[in-house]
Amino acid sequence: MKIGVYQFYPEWGQKEQNLLKIREAIYFHKNVDLWVLPELCTTGYQFTSKAELTALAEEFPDGETAHEIMQMTADLQNALIIGVAEKAGSDVFNSAAVFEKGNFLGTYRKIHLFYKEKNYFTPGEEIPRVFDIMGARVGVMICFDWIFPETARTLALQGAELLAHSANLVLPYCQQAMITRSIENRCFTVTANRIGSEERDGEKLVFTGMSQATDYTGVRLAQLKEDEEKVLIADMDLALANNKNITTMNHLFEDRRINLYK
Ligand code: ACM
């Protein structure tokens, strides 16, 4: 399965322009089966009020962004996971929306909010889930979820072959940590990060780029640079992730001593 990441510099508040860039990238690489795009990559990341966030957020699948992506994935017969601001009643979630061949499969609403996201977003209350996408089992997680290994494990225990990780990373440790998430769960991973910086209300955040793909043993298959706007494509034999035997006598899940963990 060919997994594509588009690492780019989303312009804050410029949804149309950002979607146009995404469209250009994915139409240029028609052989990709599943795209993973960065967190909040249509709206930008930093907000200074709930009203500002709400004005840019959309309902899924009823909003413009969802309609546009449904049309793209129908046209290209592929799948796409994208970080969005999802409006639901008076709440706004930091979500990843999942589409396959013109259909909306659902959203994952980020459960671990980072820093000032806590001021404006509502945390997701649903167990992180695995989606059946293009014949593969894909667990979806968003950015700061990486620092809670329970997220990746919850997805792996549901049979995730690939962890699709949509991100706007600012701390320097994640790309290394995702190698560990991969090893400890024997899952392929792909982290789609953004580049550039945002300065809002006197606070500047710099995003780390370095989007990457790993295989199910933690080997890095490809990685982008910290400042390049570019597509990464990794070819993955995802069925390999179903082999949870570490040695002939050690099974990743069966050897857990859950009665001894607290
Ligand atoms: C993050 O969760 N966007 C750091």
Per-chain topology:
Blueprint: E1 2-7, H1 15-28, E2 34-36, H2 50-56, H3 64-76, E3 79-88, E4 91-100, E5 103-109, H4 117-120, E6 130-133, E7 136-142, H5 149-157, E8 162-166, H6 174-185, E9 188-192, E10 197-200, E11 203-206, E12 212-214, E13 220-223, E14 230-235, E15 245-247, E16 250-251
Parallel strand pairs: 1-2, 2-3, 7-8, 8-9
Antiparallel strand pairs: 1-14, 3-4, 4-5, 6-7, 9-12, 10-11, 12-13, 15-16
The structure holds acetamide.
Description:
With 262 residues, this protein is of the alpha/beta class. The protein has one domain (2-260): 4-Layer Sandwich (Nitrilase/N-carbamoyl-D-aminoacid amidohydrolase). It contains six helices and 16 strands. It has helices spanning 15-28, 50-56, 64-76, 117-120, 149-157, 174-185; strands at 2-7, 34-36, 79-88, 91-100, 103-109, 130-133, 136-142, 162-166, 188-192, 197-200, 203-206, 212-214, 220-223, 230-235, 245-247, 250-251. The longest helix has 14 residues, at 15-28. The model has no long low-confidence stretch (mean pLDDT 98). Acetamide is lined by residues 39, 114, 143-144, 168-170.
Brief characterization of the structure:
With 262 residues, the protein is of the alpha/beta class. Helix content is 23%, strand content 32%.
Oligomer: single chain
Main CATH class = Alpha Beta
Largest sheet: 6 strands, mixed
Number of helices: 6
Based on secondary structure, the structural category is alpha/beta
**What small molecules does the structure contain?**
acetamide
How many whole angstroms does the radius of gyration measure?
17 Å
